[in-house]
Amino acid sequence: MAVTTRSASTVWTGDLASGSGATTLETSGLGTFPVTWKARTEEAESKTSPEELIAAAHASCFSMALSNILKQAGHVAEKLETTAEVDFDTTDGAKISGIRLTLEASIPGIDAAEFQKHANAAKEGCPVSVALAAVPSITLDAHLN
């Protein structure tokens, strides 16, 4: 069995409310991105947040999982457009309270029931969904074009 490791790092200075940090995607070398508490709880203002990074990971993982499930069922998607929205709730502490996946898909030769079955299997089984199992609500709104 092969294990692949990916890494990112963050350097933070100051306190939570007024401090700031920079998160670097180490493995890919794609860049360093500023992070702040304000960007996490208010307007992003050209900064990222852990929740945005989780959304990116979830959208891409779900799409990959679904493409694999479809291939195993004899289908190839023309296009899978997945959006993930991650809710960060600071009402009672700080937690991720929900994730909504939205999918627009073009898949030749598949009927609606089979499409929904495969989309739900990808939602339940993609490694990021499994890692996020403690999130109280992960929903999927999947549409076949």
From TrEMBL:
Pfam families the UniProt entry points to: OsmC
Highest rank taxon of the organism: Bacteria
Protein name: Osmotically inducible protein OsmC
